[in-house]
């Protein structure tokens, strides 16, 4: 408290000045509302219902097919599976087929070399004509990583296992013209890179007569001039494969190489260019076992008919156990035979 002398009041009068208090609001004081507590045991109020959705579709009645419709559906499904099987065989399984075939041929050829019974002509040591697929040489091209066993014959069935030697030409290393056909993409694609060979590259061939060396001359395509005829004891090797997009051959490419080692004497040949089978020529298919394809397709159709009839009688599980292996075996055989009908340089 403070005291002052008021000039307007009588002398000596002392007045006191009290502190000013804040004015209270005239209305009631509003503070934060206390939270509402739900009575114990009370149930929460129900939520508002969701807006109605689209009414569910009525259940469809099961589709009942007649035996004829089931048969048609099964045959169409089998055709689709067969096409997929052919594609899988050419794109994937063919490379495994090639590896296995090469290993078997290499083991056989090594044994013949050690026994000095490797063929030096179109016949074996007993004078019997060599069967298609018999190993006759080992071809090595270090610059493109080729190391393949060459087989006798050049049909599509032979080139599945490795490069094939044309029967109407001499063996590699002998005096004269030798021609070897190899695939460009499927079944290992052993000749897929021969177009990269430059003049002067080395090619080595091992036969029953020993080791021979070739030097690449150049690459030829359709329409290019042919090389001059060989003179005397000269030797030449020609590698042939398909050109174009992989698995879609559009032509033939040839790589010629000159024999630079000592020529070996040529063995006896029973096949002439005019008598060479059409299946052994460039880009030809092999219809020699087409009968097996017909039997496989017939077995698939018969198995499908029996499976449709047994489905309603024995149920899906028993029918699947009995007929699935039969259909699978028929499909594998059919896919293999269809692959044989494709070009031998594919």
Descriptive terms for the model:
346 residues, two-stranded antiparallel ribbon, alpha+beta, membrane, Sortase, Sortase, Chain: A, Sortase_dom-sf, 4 helices
Portion in strands: 15-25%
Q: How many domains is the backbone divided into?
A: 1
Mean pLDDT: 86
Output the CATH homologous superfamily.
Sortase
Q: What is the CATH architecture annotation?
A: Beta Barrel
Give the overall silhouette: elongated
**Rg of Cα set:** 45 Å
**Alpha-beta classification:** alpha+beta
The span between the termini is 117 Å
Largest sheet: 8 strands, mixed, barrel
Helix proportion of residues, in percent?
Answer: 25-40%
Class, according to the CATH hierarchy? Mainly Beta
Question: How many E-type strands?
Answer: 10
Q: Could you list the spans in which at least 5 consecutive residues all have pLDDT below 50? A: 1-12
Q: What is the H/E string?
A: EEHEEHEEEEEEHH
The fold-level CATH name is Sortase, Chain: A
How many DSSP H or I helices? 4
Strands in their spatial order, largest beta sheet = 3-4-5-6-9-10-8-7
Protein name: LPXTG-site transpeptidase (Sortase) family protein
Transmembrane segments: 75-96, 290-308, 320-338
Keywords: Hydrolase, Membrane, Transmembrane, Transmembrane helix
Region (Disordered): 1-65
Task: Describe this entry's structure for a reader.
The protein is 30% helix and 21% strand. It has helices at 67-115, 156-159, 290-314, 316-340; strands at residues 2-5, 14-17, 135-141, 146-152, 164-165, 176-181, 202-207, 210-221, 235-245, 248-259. The chain starts with a strand and ends in a 6-residue tail after the last helix. It has 346 residues and is of the alpha+beta class. The protein has one domain: Beta Barrel (Sortase, Chain: A). The strands form two sheets. It has an eight-stranded mixed beta barrel with strand order 3-4-5-6-9-10-8-7. Strands 1-2 form a two-stranded antiparallel sheet. A hairpin with a 2-residue loop joins β7 and β8 (210-221).
């Amino acid at each position: 408290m403070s005291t002052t002398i008021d000039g307007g009041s009588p002398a000596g009068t002392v007045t006191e000045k009290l502190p000013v208090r804040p004015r209270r609001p005239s209305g009631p004081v509003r503070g934060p509302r206390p939270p509402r507590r739900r009575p114990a045991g009370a149930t929460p109020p129900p939520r508002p219902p969701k807006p109605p959705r689209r009414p569910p579709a009525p259940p469809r009645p099961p589709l009942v097919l007649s035996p004829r419709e089931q048969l048609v559906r099964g045959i169409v499904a089998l055709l689709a599976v067969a096409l997929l099987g052919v594609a899988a065989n050419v794109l994937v399984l063919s490379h495994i087929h090639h590896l296995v075939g090469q290993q078997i041929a290499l083991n056989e050829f090594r044994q013949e070399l050690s026994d000095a019974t490797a063929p030096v002509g179109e016949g074996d040591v007993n004078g019997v004509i060599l069967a298609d697929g018999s190993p006759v040489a080992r071809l090595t091209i270090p610059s493109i990583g080729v190391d393949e066993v060459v087989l006798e014959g050049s049909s599509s069935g032979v080139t599945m296992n490795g490069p094939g030697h044309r029967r109407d030409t001499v063996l590699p290393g002998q005096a004269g013209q030798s021609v070897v056909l190899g695939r460009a993409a499927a079944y290992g694609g052993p000749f897929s890179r021969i177009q990269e060979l430059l003049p002067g590259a080395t090619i080595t061939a091992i036969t029953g007569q020993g080791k021979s060396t070739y030097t690449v001359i150049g690459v030829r395509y359709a329409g290019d001039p042919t090389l001059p005829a060989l003179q005397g004891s000269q030797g030449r090797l020609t590698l042939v494969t398909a050109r174009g997009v992989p698995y879609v051959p559009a032509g033939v490419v040839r790589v010629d190489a000159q024999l630079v080692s000592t020529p070996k004497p040529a063995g006896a040949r029973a096949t002439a260019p005019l008598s060479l089978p059409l299946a052994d020529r460039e880009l030809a298919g092999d219809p020699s076992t087409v009968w097996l394809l017909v039997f496989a397709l017939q077995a698939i159709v018969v198995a499908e008919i029996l499976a449709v009839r047994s489905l309603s009688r024995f149920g899906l599980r028993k029918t699947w156990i009995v007929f699935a292996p039969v259909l699978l075996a028929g499909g594998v055989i059919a896919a293999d035979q269809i692959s044989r009908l494709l070009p031998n340089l594919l």
